[in-house]
Amino acid sequence: MSFAELGLSTALVSRVHDHGYQTPTPIQQQAIPAVLAGGDVLATAQTGTGKTAGFTLPLLDRLNRSRATGGGRPVVRALILAPTRELAAQIRDSVKTYGRDLPLRSMTIFGGVGMQPQVQALRKGVDILVATPGRLLDHMRQGTVDLSHVEVLVLDEADRMLDMGFIRDIRRVISALPETRQTLLFSATFSGEIRKLAQDMLNQPTRIDVARRNTAVEAVIQKVHPVNRDGKSALLTSLIQNGDWRQVLVFTRTKHGADRLARQLDRGGVTATAIHGNKSQNARTRALAHFKEGDVRALVATDIAARGLDIDQLPHVVNYDLPNVAEDYIHRIGRTGRAGHGGEAISLVCADEHKLLQGIERLLGERIRQQAIAGHEPDPAERPQPIPGQKGSGRKPGNDSRRAGKGAGGNRAARTNQDGRNRARQAVR
Description:
Blueprint lengths: L9 H9 L7 H11 L4 E4 L6 H15 L12 E4 L3 H14 L7 E4 L6 H9 L3 E4 L1 H10 L9 E4 L2 H6 L3 H9 L6 E6 L4 H10 L4 E4 L10 E7 L5 H11 L5 E4 L3 H13 L4 E4 L5 H13 L4 E4 L1 H4 L9 E4 L6 H8 L9 E7 L4 H11 L4 E2 L47 H11 L1
Parallel strand pairs: 1-6, 1-7, 2-4, 2-5, 3-4, 5-6, 8-13, 8-14, 9-11, 9-12, 10-11, 12-13
Helix pairs in contact: 2-3, 3-4, 6-8
């Protein structure tokens, strides 16, 4: 099947071909015709499957073929909500890339930068608005954005938005939209919360499911390297240097841990930079640009900051700390093995994390191959210590823990922790 067979305009098909894509992915084969048909869509698709183009291409086509309903004045015709700044920027890039030859204007609004330039851009008019919920609500409160003519609403990575506690923000935004509209909901998982949200928001949606729930990317080789708690930094440095890794995304559990590891890698001869919620948007953008350009070899990130990072052909992902929530392992390793390319996901596991590893393996339905590295073998006498955020640890989560996360045993106490919610919202607005 070709892109032309999906019903897209000749101009959009040409743009897709210009970027080297000839055959649509499974999510694109199903989503593009469904969106073009004008009905609501509920799609489950993991990261790296091409879902962004699956909704941006038909969205551009639909808006280009119809007239705005604003009586001649510029109005927002499509609203795309994303959980993080990085994902919002990625979606805007997709819209700009494929819509370059179309008379449609787009922009992104998110926190971490000044509002006034955004206000000025909104006054000039925008057809497609990509936004994070927090900053969009700021504009709504100040009356600087009008959503009364939105024809299409897209919620991307809806599961993450719910996990981060944005459900009330989403409902406030929806209350400002016309009742008659097309709604597209994309999620990596199809949990009970997503099912409830879909029932409230969607009208007889077309259901698309291109991947089994919570399955890992098949193109990713997964490994576990057992190691002592204090030996992780040395092992990671050795893996990068001896393997001549030129680009690796490393996940830590906390912001302070990300900064500390980046400094340790630098001291060990591996250029590294950290990206997390405490960094300004400009700092995060610069760090990602340096990583993509090869100026640094290791990008150390927390889960919140890394959500939505789009790095072409990323060869290596390392779980320096295993996530407290097993599903986050799926999202992490999905940063590699994208668009048909292979990738490698390595987890450095100490005695503290054995239960977390067991939870991940239960989710996957299989064991992950373990391989001790010579010179970095773990001491069998090392005793496990409590991990912040883990059920029964008796310790509060670290400063970058998920606002609505659940511990390895399924604990959802964090969902009711208002302080944690406020911290996470500030990190991504």
